[in-house]
Amino acid sequence: MTDILQNPAPGFQTVRHSGDSLTVSMRLDSDREGGAFLRTNLGQASVHRAEIIANVERGRAILGRDWHDLPMRRTGERSFQITLPLCQVGRFDFKTFFVPADGGEPVWPKGENVRVKIEPSATVSGNTIYNAFVRQFGPNRSGQAWTKEHRDAENFLNQAGYIVIPPSGTFADLRRELHVIMDQLGFRIIQLLPIHPAPATFGRMGRFGSPFAPLDFFTVDPSLAIFDRHTTPLEQFSQLVADIHARDGLVIIDLPADHTGWGSIIQVHHPEWFTRNEDGSFASPGAWGVIWADLCQLNFADKTLWMQLAEVF
Fold first, then answer.
1. What are phi and psi of 47, to 5 degrees?
2. Which helix (H) or strand (E) holds 97?
3. DSSP β-bridge partners for residue 91
């Protein structure tokens, strides 16, 4: 029996960037004739994706055609090495193994695969992120837009059964602040908290409704736009994105994709895509001992839901 010492060690995980390289070495504990190889799916992300899509949409088996073996160069009587170019963005695995010349069983190092996540080269530096909650811009930024008189009136109407939602900050308000956020403060990535419509009646949490209770993944909350007969709310969101891109910035959208708010478009048309409790009620997700009762948990056992969310993404 031959033991193998692999570097990076089995189970190691690392993050690199496109254009980097990674040298992998193997050393045997005794002299033995044969060859060394590295089994990996590096550079085969498109093959892996195609197999997943074919499995979900057409029921085809996942055969693992993205895996392939690369020969390692002998560097000594017991040692081998290979340098891997890390060009394709994605998450990949690899592990070395030794094939004896006498036709015996391949020998693998003990432990899990090495996992490497390759990020785009453009993200190697300058990754400062500004988290923006659009509602809090405009008059809401100073905290003075909602006075005690406003709150008293709101409480009175809410107690009478009315729905009162204060004016929200808008995409246009955030656009006006980009010269400070990006040009002066130097933030390069703008992360937006969820921008989808949220419950304003049943299942409403807080004064505005929780942004993490999306009702429609395919549009934006109209309250985040100004009334303009020339542009739709979605077009105003696109203008914000265009302004960020014009400053060589990136946009991240916070997308709570494992649940929706009660009464969402998906829930109305596809209640079978949701998790149910034993009594038949819609299940709610939670964390840290808290159940978020305004949310309804999606059930990913149905792969048609996967295809729906693929369209969302």
1. -65, -45
2. strand 90-100
3. 117
State the helix-helix crossing angle for 171-178 and 233-246, rounded to 10 degrees.
Answer: 10
Per-residue model confidence (pLDDT) at position 143:
63
What's the pLDDT score for residue 30? Answer: 87
Q: How many CB atoms lie within 10 A of CB 66?
A: 20
How many Å from the N-terminal Cα to the C-terminal Cα in the chain? 49
Helices (H), the chain: 45-58, 148-159, 171-178, 233-246, 265-269, 303-312
Q: Report, as an integer, the average pLDDT of 243-247.
A: 97
The residue among 88, 71, 78, 84 whose CA lies nearest residue 36 is: 71
Host H or E run for residue 39: strand 34-40
- Kindly give the interhelix angle for 45-58 and 303-312, rounded to the nearest 10 degrees: 130
Please tell me the pTM assigned to this model: 0.80
- CA gap 149, 135 in Å, rounded: 20
Has residue 50 got a pLDDT over 70? yes
Per the CB < 8 A criterion, the answer to whether 264 and 195 are in contact is: no
Average pLDDT over the chain, rounded to an integer: 91
Overall average pLDDT of the 297-303 stretch: 94
Instruction: For residue 288, give both structure tokens.
Output: 């840290």
DSSP-derived secondary structure letter, 217: T
Question: What are the tokens at 174?
Answer: 């955030």
State the Cα angle at 51 between 49 and 52, rounded to 5°: 65
- Residue found by looking up tokens 């908290």 in the block: 193
